[in-house]
Amino acid sequence: MKTPSLSHLVSLFSACPLFQQVDAEKMQRILELFTTHSLESGCLLLTPDQPNDYLYLIIEGQLSVHLSYISTPPIGFISAGEYTGEVSLLDQQHPSAFVVANQASTVMRLHRRYLQQVYEITPVIQHNLLTALCERIRSGNNSLIYSEHNAHIDSLTKLPNRRWLDYAFQREQQNSTENKQPLCMIMLDVDHFKDYNDQHGHLAGDAVLQFISQQLREQLRPNDSLARFGGEEFVILLPNLSLPEAEQVAERLRSCLATLSHIPNSLPILPSVTISLGVAEFSPDDELTCLLHKADKALYQAKQQGRNRVCVYNLQ
User: What is the pLDDT of residues 134-143, one digit of tens each?
Assistant: First the structure.
């Protein structure tokens, strides 16, 4: 394999963030410390199963980055003029992802024992590596935030989902217990939603759920916790409200939908729907499942009594 000329490499990596503010003469001296290697397509360069002692520069070809398993879809690609391995090289931990050549590629690598020599040629490299590490961390944090958001938000209604409800309940349970404040739950269900879907189509059903979500948000306080529980069911946690007050809130929610003849701004025009609601109050020994059970029993009672109504859980 013919090693590319230093002048070619300097030109290739001149725009690489790793070599920012490093002049050509110093870049050549640094590149002389690297060794060149060929990778066949499918060759594994980095793996979480093994430590990494090298910083890699990609001369030609392309590498792909995979989380969890090599067989998973790539989350990114590393092309000629870019680099990899810097994070595990600096923190001396195993790589956090798999990096594999997805075509025949050529790389240059620098062993960690030469890092100090590189820093002596120009301390700017140390600064650039630190900057790169910070950017990787920031990017990783943003990915975590995005993943966390997606894990707790319902994609259709943009409301928190059932998983998020566990967290919200723990927070409100602690607040209610410590401050001896009331806590109530409303569980509501769209009346005859299956029939609505069958008659008007699932897209119309989705539009109804989105509209209901918007209406509920507008009617609730900022500190109330609203979640899509699943299907056409929603759950609301009402901190610092007594059972009669929570019943009033439920009646207001029911009324704001019952008075509509159609879904506003819908094309084609879609008929409105009604909702049934069950209300229950938190007891100090209640876990989430217990409070859900009580609200669900009240909701069932509302349905049995003809729907489009509010019922309150009664222990009797």
Answer: 777 776 655 5
Tokens 């499918």 sit on residue: 42
pLDDT at 68: 72
Q: Using one digit for the tens of pLDDT, what is the confidence trace for 290-316?
A: 999 999 999 999 999 999 999 999 876
**Within 13 Å and on the Cβ side, how many CA atoms surround 291?**
26
- Residues 86, 232, 247, 281: which is the catalytic one? 232
How confident is the model at residue 10, as a pLDDT? 87
Instruction: State the pLDDT at residue 136.
Output: 72
Cβ within 8 Å of residue 221, ≥6 positions away: none
**Do 308 and 254 contact (CB within 8 A), yes or no?**
yes
Q: Which CATH number fits domain 6-150: 1.10.260.40, 3.40.1350.10, 2.60.120.10, 2.60.120.380?
A: 2.60.120.10
**Domain residue spans of the chain:** 6-150, 162-312
Q: How confident is the model at residue 31 (pLDDT cuts 50, 70, 90)?
A: very high
What's the pTM? 0.60
Q: Which tokens sit at 128?
A: 């650039």
Query: 208 in helix, strand or coil?
Result: helix
Query: Cα–Cα distance between 256 and 262 in angstroms, integer?
Result: 12
Q: Encode pLDDT of 63-100 as tens digits.
A: 999 887 777 788 889 999 999 999 888 888 899 889 99
Q: What are phi and psi of 170, to 5 degrees?
A: -55, -40
Candidates 3.40.50.1970, 3.40.50.300, 3.30.43.10, 3.30.70.270; CATH matching 162-312: 3.30.70.270
251 is catalytic: no
In the Cβ-directed half-sphere of 313, how many Cα atoms lie within 13 Å?
A: 23
Whole-angstrom Cα Rg for the chain: 30
Residues 6 or more apart whose Cβ sits within 8 Å of residue 61: 39, 80, 101, 103, 104, 105, 106
Do the domains at 6-150 and 162-312 have one common CATH topology? no
